[in-house]
Amino acid sequence: MVRAATLWLEAISDHPFFLFLHLYDLHTPYNFPSTFRPRNGESGYDAEVRYVDQVLGSFWELLRQQHLLDKSLVVLTSDHGEGLDEHGETAHSYFIYQTTLWVPLIIHWPAGAASFPPRVDTPASLLDVAPTILQFAGVPRPSQFQGKGLIDLLQPNPGQAQREIYSESLYAHYHFACSPLMSLRVGRYKYIEAPKPELYDLAVDPGEKHNLYGERKSIALALRERLLKLHSRGAPVPSPAGRLLDADAISRLMSLGYVPVSEPHSAPSSTEADPKDRLSSYEEFGAARALASSGRIEQSNSSLERLLTTYPELEEARMTLGLDYQRLGEHARAAPSGWRRPFGSAISQVPAETRALIAASSARRP
């Protein structure tokens, strides 16, 4: 990715440009080039962080050598963090604790910019990044943007209202038949909407170890009301019926690990399972996928079949089992000819699930 960005910069740097460099390396499984050696006792995650740091350091040096730093606004951030076994989550996407929500936001201002403080501790949102870039460039913010420019936060203003920071995770909802998770942070307090609600005081409990919902219920309910109002204002507009992505776009999304979904989500329901209660199943599913990726497909299948015996409604587990059957050449076991067949089950449960349709078509081929 850095090589591609470098070649592009060499061709375009004499003109105004916008470059988005996205590095995907900090996702499991961690794979390093042959020239990089992890240190003794270094975890895979720490080694990958060090490798990415070296890569970005080299790119930063390239910008300096090409005299671009003094005239460029550079923003470093991340889409999420990693659970690393805190709250029982090994990777990310399942929960919305600070382990995955707290990400860096580092801004390098070009020469001639106003003098800003080196650090601001006021919480901000990734929704604010694009408006901040436009605000600095003097470009009007599009009306559909929900975030706000952060430059105002850099000016002392004791009377400034506390910002509402919204977060959500729908992974457990779409893939493990659980309630969606939504949260709202205002100042020091963070409320998580779930069948078993949670409230944390991040000023004294940044690790979110002590749920204050029962002790400070008035604060929790006030934040819940603000959360639901915010959520209702941002309700998605339904897509036209029957609209699907083209096969090329689906393939690219799948290669990056992103799953196209078609159903809208609603506020958490007390009748749905709380994601906290199915964490072990999520971790078991992740371990099964890791087994398949390492070539131990039979072991992966055994784990997936055991998981589906307990939770037959887990569509993602059925999809993975079907893909495992394909890898073994057992296409008949994956073909959609009944509820016990993985791809057939997935199509029956979610008719618009494009991956299931593609995989089933592939399974039926001779």
What's the quick description here?
The chain has 366 residues and is α+β, with helices and mostly antiparallel strands.
What's the N-to-C terminus distance?
37 Å
* Major beta sheet, strand line-up: 3-4-5-6
Helix content range of the residues, please?
Answer: 25-40%
The biggest beta sheet, please?
A: 4 strands, antiparallel
- List the helices and strands in order: HHEHEHEHEEEHHHHHHHH
Compute the number of strand runs. 6
Radius of gyration from the alpha-carbon trace, in angstroms:
23 Å
Count of separate DSSP helical elements: 13
Q: What is the 3D shape?
A: globular
Features:
alpha+beta; two-stranded antiparallel ribbon; 366 residues; 4-stranded antiparallel β-sheet
Provide an overview of this structure.
Helix 10 (315-327) packs antiparallel against helix 12 and helix 10 (315-327) packs parallel to helix 13 (354-364). The protein starts with a helix and ends with a helix. The strands form two sheets. A four-stranded antiparallel beta sheet has the order 3-4-5-6. Helix content is 39%, strand content 8%. It is globular and about 65 Å long. The chain is an alpha+beta fold. The longest helix has 22 residues, at 44-65.
Could you outline the blueprint of secondary structure elements for this entry?
Layout: H1 2-12, H2 44-65, E1 74-77, H3 98-101, E2 105-108, H4 129-137, E3 164-169, H5 171-176, E4 181-186, E5 189-193, E6 198-201, H6 217-233, H7 247-255, H8 279-293, H9 297-310, H10 315-327, H11 331-334, H12 342-349, H13 354-364
Antiparallel strand pairs: 1-2, 3-4, 4-5, 5-6
